[in-house]
Design a protein that fits this description.
Layout lengths: L1 H7 L1 H7 L4 H14 L8 H6 L1 E6 L2 E6 H13 L12 E5 L5 H10 L7 E6 L2 H14 L4 E4 L6 H10 L3 E7 L10 H7 L4 E8 L22 H10 L3 E12 L8 E8 L1
Helix pairs in contact: 1-7, 2-7, 3-5, 3-6
The structure holds S-adenosylmethionine.
């Protein structure tokens, strides 16, 4: 998988850079979102160069530095807004090397010390980079194998730990799965209390979504259908439904829509 080969080279950069966790996370945001050369960029570069982004449905031209800050804000105001003292675990499905989970941990771990942060990722490369950051900064973050086509190991882990109140989220990982299996959600709905945030390029599946902003035929085709079915079956309540909400790169071919729901 191409992700795996790209992420592997990060491990040596992470181990050689002497940065605070917060600074590393900030740099990883520039790197992943805005720099296809896969290198850390200078402050001068990120303060001078601009990029067109979509934030909260509005198109803006901002510096790369500002764009990374809005990217952080997009995570905090959505996934972050679901975290509080009552939550046992925050779990990302398809986490890559974990840039979102590190951001959330760094923001909320002192405020809500009892929450466990879990990065569920399919590729060994993503898990390896995640583990390298965890090791370097001695963090209590758990890196786990997760596969959208066979979620049994993640599910067993949740049952073993007896987590009762979980915030799940997905960020551009459902996109990778052309047809999700509804049974994944039916199984997760067996857990006492769950909430989900999705930031995924599924606007073309949504009412009022712009088909030009997403709609890659190789990407996910059925997230909204599954969630609508679950809501019609009175199993979930969709609280937030915003097509074409965020995009951190100028092409606008893969704009993330925001959907938040909870078990009822
Ligand atoms: C575009 S990346 C997004 C990574 C991360 N969520 C983020 O926002 O930085 C897509 C992710 O989906 C993961 N993925 C692809 N196929 C998967 C599968 N079958 N099960 C779980 N994750 C998968 C990839 O390995 C990758 O981590």
């Amino acid at each position: 998988m191409s992700y795996e080969s790209n992420w592997g080279s990060l491990i040596s950069q992470i181990s050689s850079e002497e940065l605070s966790l917060k600074d590393l996370i900030t740099k990883l945001n520039y790197w992943d979102q805005f720099n296809p050369a896969y290198q850390f960029k200078s402050n001068e570069f990120i303060e001078k160069n601009t990029v067109n982004i979509i934030y909260d449905n509005n198109i803006k031209t901002v510096t790369i530095k500002e764009a990374a800050s809005l990217k952080r804000q997009s995570v905090m105001s959505t996934i972050g807004s679901q975290i509080d003292d009552s939550v046992d675990a925050v779990i990302e499905l398809g986490s890559g090397f974990g840039r979102n989970i590190f951001m959330l941990y760094e923001e909320f771990s002192s405020k809500y010390p009892n929450v466990t942060y879990i990065a569920g990722e399919y590729t060994a490369g993503g898990q390896d980079v995640c583990s390298a950051i965890v090791k370097k900064y001695d963090l209590p973050i758990i890196s786990l194998h997760f596969n959208y086509y066979d979620w049994s190991s993640l599910y067993s882990f949740i049952i073993e730990k007896n987590y009762k109140n979980i915030c799940f989220y997905t960020s551009y990982s459902v996109e990778q799965i052309p047809y999700l299996d509804k049974q994944l959600f039916l199984d997760l709905l067996k857990i006492n209390n769950i909430k989900f945030t999705h930031i995924e390029p599924v606007g073309f599946q949504m009412e009022n979504g712009n088909p030009q902003y997403s709609g890659n035929p190789n990407y996910n085709q059925n997230l909204i259908q599954i969630l609508t079915d679950l809501e019609n079956e009175n199993l979930i309540k969709i609280d937030t439904y915003k097509p074409d909400w965020f995009c951190g790169d100028g092409g606008f071919h893969n704009v993330g829509s925001l959907i938040q729901w909870r078990k009822i």
